[in-house]
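Design job #97: recover the sequence.
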């Protein structure tokens, strides 16, 4: 429990100083989690030897450290955090919501900006909105202003502004977005898929492993034994003639492909349901591989983005799999490590398939870089058929 009490001089109440609360408050003011957490830690150290501080004293400390961090926009937002009417944004459907610098930063990162570049734009836009000092502003106004700022930026410029234009047009088009995230065990599929869902506010996500579990309850092992194996050991249930005529590598590939074919039926059903409801969806799992994209997808106005994740160094992939036993014990890392050679060979197969099908292969070494690469590929795909003017997009 915190030893330092914060006194609210208005109602004479005392509450413990909590770094987590201050961190979240600073995030709402436009800082990244790391920035907010660092400032909260510094302030805790500043007041650690004091039994009590007032809310006014605490606010002065926060403003001091925000200015020291050159986060002027956050100073204004933090000081006005209890005045909700100041930065209300009217959306396209006429609803009002509080302007969120953190959400706006994620929007900017969605077109490939680094956190630093995104925060620079957040600074300018937030400061402008505060100077404007009107109770409401439209999301269209903010989008147009962002486009102009990006165009005139020395570091970003017209190419980045064009990406913003393309992405805003897609966001307002109502078209569903379908991400197919493939890769072998340990490459980070579920982590990346969850991050995508959070950043892009996609509510529907499906794991092919879960689909396989559902199918196992419906189809007994005696009927389809290959379905009841892992992707890297499905070859053990291949017919005898294949076992005798093919080498180990080929058996691994064929076993995997047969299991993936079964799963493609369920994957297709999940995607079609989402498209019928006009919602975006992320499907992640080892059972997505490029050769079955055409059989899964049918003509539609949805944007389909397939990506193949990879960990290109054996020792790094082994380390990631070992990490599962610490982070998620129920995944039993030992079992994966026992079959690591098969997993490695399966990754080689998947990457070869992706290369032949022109599916982007993304090396998963940094989560933010992976997200940036996926979004740049997504926007490049949209840009191929884009021919609108800024006036048409923001009209």
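Job complete. Output follows.
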């Amino acid at each position: 429990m915190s030893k330092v009490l914060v006194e609210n001089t208005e109602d004479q109440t005392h509450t413990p100083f909590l770094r987590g609360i201050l961190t979240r408050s600073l995030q709402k003011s436009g800082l990244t989690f790391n920035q907010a957490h660092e400032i909260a830690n510094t302030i805790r150290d500043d007041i650690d030897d004091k039994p009590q501080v007032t809310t006014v004293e605490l606010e002065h400390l926060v403003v001091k450290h925000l200015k020291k961090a050159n986060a002027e926009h956050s100073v204004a937002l933090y000081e006005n955090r209890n005045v909700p009417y100041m930065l209300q944004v009217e959306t396209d459907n006429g609803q009002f919501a509080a302007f969120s610098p953190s959400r706006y930063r994620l929007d900017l990162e969605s077109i490939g900006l680094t956190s630093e570049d995104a925060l620079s734009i957040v600074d300018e836009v937030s400061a402008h909105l505060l100077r404007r000092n009107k109770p409401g502003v439209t999301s269209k106004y903010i989008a147009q202003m962002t486009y102009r700022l990006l165009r005139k930026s020395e570091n970003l410029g017209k190419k980045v502004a064009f990406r913003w234009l393309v992405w805003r047009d897609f966001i307002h088009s109502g078209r569903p977005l379908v991400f197919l995230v493939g890769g072998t065990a340990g490459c980070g599929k579920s982590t990346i898929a969850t991050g995508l869902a959070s950043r892009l506010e996609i509510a529907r996500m499906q794991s092919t492993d879960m689909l396989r579990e559902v199918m196992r309850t419906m189809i007994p092992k005696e009927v389809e034994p290959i379905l009841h194996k892992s992707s890297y050991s499905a070859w053990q249930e291949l017919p005898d003639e294949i076992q005798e005529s093919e080498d180990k590598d080929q058996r691994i590939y064929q076993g995997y492909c047969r299991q993936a074919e079964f799963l493609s039926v369920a994957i297709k059903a999940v995607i079609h349901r989402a498209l019928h409801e006009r919602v975006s969806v992320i499907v992640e799992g080892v059972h997505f591989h490029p050769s079955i994209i055409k059989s899964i997808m049918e003509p539609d106005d949805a944007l389909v983005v397939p990506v193949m994740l990879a960990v290109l160094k054996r020792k790094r992939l082994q380390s990631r799999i070992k990490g599962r036993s610490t982070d998620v014990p129920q995944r039993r890392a030992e079992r994966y490590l026992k079959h690591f050679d098969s997993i490695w060979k399966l990754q080689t197969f998947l990457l070869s398939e992706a290369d032949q099908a022109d599916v982007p292969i993304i090396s998963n070494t940094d989560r933010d870089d992976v997200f940036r690469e996926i979004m740049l590929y997504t926007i490049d795909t949209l840009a191929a058929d884009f021919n609108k003017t800024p006036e048409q997009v923001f009209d």
